[in-house]
């Protein structure tokens, strides 16, 4: 089977087929996701929250992304691997962006990078695409700017913000992005933007009118703790299953039923007798 790529995104948009994406940060989860047939895996900087226990994505480093991206890439022989450029790895200059994205492609073995923002990152998008690095853009709620937003909010509810979002979406398309993540955008606005763009939109909390969807895998498996946004559907309560399995393990170890003979290795009695 040929590995999925930017061509898959283009074809699916053209043929009005939905694109499926999930996040992954480690080999085991990425393998499960890849083998299930998803189109692309995002090594999201949400690994800061999900894997590293940070409150936000601001502290995530390029080294964090490189390590997790390589682990995910090793598992993905079918799904395309997109990796987030972490905060401040592309804001300083175009030169810096190219150097950092180059490392994510060469050392992390990603197939594309994702970065947050509109017009202000268009020079970076253009330069990356010119260098042969596909770029997924990200608009709406952009978590790396949490300190500017002052919280996680829906974006595009006023006429001014809706117009701004549409013009930013057209700008990143013009700069060469092959796809655009729309996070926490009202559903009808996300649908309208999707209809106006030639590149596919990937929604998260942005309704069914987007060309594809992405979720954090641990969210849709009920494995994350604390506040859960409205758009998260738990497809299987794996977190509860894990907790129950661990409670059973504790009980069986404590009462001596695990490990039974079935889970043990044997040795002949004559060997043991010779030791007495
Ligand atoms: O980091 C991430 O997981 C993301 C998705 C929410 C799109 O950017």
Topology:
Layout: H1 6-14, E1 19-23, H2 27-36, E2 40-43, H3 47-50, H4 62-75, E3 80-84, H5 94-106, E4 112-116, H6 122-130, E5 135-140, H7 146-149, H8 159-175, E6 179-183, H9 187-196, E7 201-204, E8 212-215, H10 217-220, H11 238-255, H12 269-275
Parallel strand pairs: 1-2, 1-8, 2-3, 3-4, 4-5, 5-6, 6-7, 7-8
Helix pairs in contact: 2-4, 5-6, 6-8
Bound molecules: 3-methyl-2-oxobutanoic acid (KIV).
3-methyl-2-oxobutanoic acid binds at residues 23, 42, 44-46, 84, 181, 183, 204, 214, 216.
Question: In words, what does this structure look like?
Answer:
- The chain is of the alpha/beta class.
- The chain folds into 2 domains: 6-236, TIM Barrel (Alpha-Beta Barrel); 241-273, no CATH class.
- Helices cover 43% and strands 14% of the residues.
- It has helices spanning 6-14, 27-36, 47-50, 62-75, 94-106, 122-130, 146-149, 159-175, 187-196, 217-220, 238-255, 269-275; strands spanning 19-23, 40-43, 80-84, 112-116, 135-140, 179-183, 201-204, 212-215.
- Strands 1-2-3-4-5-6-7-8 form an 8-stranded parallel barrel, surrounded by 7 helices.
- Helix 2 links the parallel strand 1 and strand 2 (40-43).
- 3-methyl-2-oxobutanoic acid (KIV) is lined by residues 23, 42, 44-46, 84, 181, 183, 204, 214, 216.
């Amino acid at each position: 089977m040929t590995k999925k790529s930017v061509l898959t995104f283009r074809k699916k948009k053209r043929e009005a087929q939905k694109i499926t994406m999930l996040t992954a940060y480690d080999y085991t989860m990425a393998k499960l996701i890849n083998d299930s047939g998803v189109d692309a895996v995002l090594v999201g900087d949400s690994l800061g929250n999900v894997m590293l226990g940070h409150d936000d994505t601001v502290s995530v480093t390029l080294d964090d992304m490189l390590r997790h991206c390589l682990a995910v890439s090793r598992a993905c022989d079918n799904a395309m691997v997109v990796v987030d450029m972490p905060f401040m790895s592309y804001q300083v200059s175009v030169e810096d962006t190219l150097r950092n994205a180059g490392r994510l492609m060469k050392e992390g073995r990603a197939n594309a990078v994702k970065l947050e923002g509109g017009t202000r990152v268009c020079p970076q998008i253009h330069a990356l695409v010119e260098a042969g690095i596909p770029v997924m853009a990200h608009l709406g709620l952009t978590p790396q700017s949490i300190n500017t937003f002052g919280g996680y909010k829906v974006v595009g509810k006023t006429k001014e913000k809706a117009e701004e979002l549409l013009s930013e979406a057209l700008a990143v398309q013009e700069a060469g992005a092959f796809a655009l993540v729309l996070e926490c955008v009202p559903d009808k606005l996300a649908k309208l933007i999707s209809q106006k763009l030639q590149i596919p939109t990937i929604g998260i909390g942005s309704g069914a009118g987007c060309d594809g969807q992405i979720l954090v895998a641990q969210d849709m498996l009920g494995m994350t703790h604390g506040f859960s946004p409205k758009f998260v559907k738990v497809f299987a309560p794996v977190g509860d299953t894990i907790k129950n399995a661990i409670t059973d393990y504790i009980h069986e170890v404590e009462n001596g039923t695990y490990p039974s003979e079935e889970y043990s290795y044997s040795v002949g009695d004559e060997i043991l007798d010779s030791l007495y």
